């Protein structure tokens, strides 16, 4: 089931909610991940959740944004008004949220092998889950991973809709050596990307989530990519542009290997985290699993 952000607008607040896809009853006790944000007098902070969107009709999204006290009397915002609105604020990717079977083990791997810092951790016993936030700088200025551990659940189905996370490092070979020394799994040794010269490698974390290591010059945002596979690339690009105000930074077709990629984001790749959308020729559907959840992004705009 695709996820759909739905907005209701009043004179004082804007609230975004997410329909959560169902999970097998025996695989996940608490599929809901609760988040909160502060309402500031001089500006509003809107938290969006990005999932797999290739199956969501754009007309359904824009038809869901309404003003007034009830849908029966409200008038839907025109599409052009919505397009203008998303371009008039300052936004960035905030957290990527996914579920892990052993929180302490994953934190240890990310801090020791990938050089991330643990920024905060919290336990919510009444909801039977814990989560931890890690990244390469303060959360108010850097993209972060939000790891969620649900009590008693030690394994998840990652599926094949989620692809990988990208981490920029100064020396891919040295990072791979460190991962191997710590007992980590390397699925692709360092070497040039297919059809190019950039040095990359692939590793897996303790839960099987894939990380692509990209050799780059120092960057303010080392946690630089989230790769998702989509069944209709043009439709997905159009959705992220219209619904979230993202820019198409670049696209590349690779007919030799039968796939096309598109980089979407809120700023240049060398300074911001981006979504990498991948279309594999002839594949229109993917198994989303129940491990990867969504990307949150923060929208800051004047009242």
From TrEMBL:
InterPro entries: Glyas_Bleomycin-R_OHBP_Dase, Glyas_Fos-R_dOase_dom, Glyoxalase_1, Glyoxalase_1_CS, VOC_core
GO cellular component, one term: cytoplasm
Active site: 212 (proton donor/acceptor)
Enzyme Commission designation: 4.4.1.5
GO biological process: methylglyoxal catabolic process to D-lactate via S-lactoyl-glutathione
Record: residues binding Zn(2+): 146, 164, 212
Keywords, in A-Z order: Lyase, Metal-binding, Zinc
Protein task: Catalyzes the conversion of hemimercaptal, formed from methylglyoxal and glutathione, to S-lactoylglutathione.
Name of the protein described by the UniProt record: Lactoylglutathione lyase
Organism in which the protein naturally occurs: Gossypium raimondii (Peruvian cotton)
